[in-house]
Design a protein that fits this description.
The chain has two domains: about 140 residues, 2,3-Dihydroxybiphenyl 1,2-Dioxygenase, domain 1 (Roll); about 110 residues, 2,3-Dihydroxybiphenyl 1,2-Dioxygenase, domain 1, CATH 3.10.180. The chain is of the alpha+beta class. Strands 1, 2, 3, 4, 5, 6, 7, 8 and 9 form a nine-stranded mixed sheet that branches. The longest helix is centred in the middle third of the chain and has 12 residues. It is globular. Helices cover about 20% and strands about 40% of the residues. Pfam families: Glyoxalase_3 (PF13468).
Length: about 270
Amino acid sequence: MPVIDHVPFAANDHDAAVKRFENAGLPTTYGGRHPEQGTEMSMVVLPDGSYLEIIAPAEDADDPGYWPDHLAADAGPCAWCVDSGSVHATCQRAITQDIEVHGPLRGTRDTPAGERAEWDMAYLGPRDDGLLPFTIADRTPREFRVPDSDLYGAPISGISHVVIAVPDLDAASRTLTRLYRFPEPRTGHDDYYGDLAVFPGENVVLAEPARGPLDDRVDAFGAVPATVLLGGDVDGARHSYSLGDATTILDSRVRYVDGFDRELAVVDR
């Protein structure tokens, strides 16, 4: 499985979303505007170089091109991105597996330093479905797109797992296994997430909710990220960030970040 590069959090108000992260103790860096897409972004850059992207419509822009429905709904995590090394090779592999591909496309962002970050990207699967990641490869130096982290030495290291809420657990498992040759998943159940599939050694967890707010989220958006799990020291992190009480997901200890409705958590490494 390629490495998770970042996870976008869709917001309808950029400044309010930034404040939410910073109130939790997570420092943000303004990243600039996507000129062709009508959006702007900030990011929480983690020590391992992965990041959480806060993306929102730019004030003077027309309809945004990136995840407009998610932005309008202030939906939080709306997609996930992997660095595959070669976008073209990833597209070719997906096509051989009869998976829908949108791309390769060219992305750009004008940074506060006056640089233009450029990258290749492609969406895998239906454009309105968040089960599969979109893939990215930098055209310009990566530091144009992702600055150094302000969190070196912090009790969190990077994105450990993304929990994807799906309408059909078995079908989603087969798709991921076919594309990435995942091992047979370990299954279980959680009162909030519903039925779970965890792939040993991989950083994706699938959840098929049966009821409640997560089921409503799937009804609204289809397959969509539900929770981003940051790897770290669960007990140590509570001294640096605003976290709730410890709980477990399939035997892993987690603390949810306050103010994020279970969209963001720290999990023991």
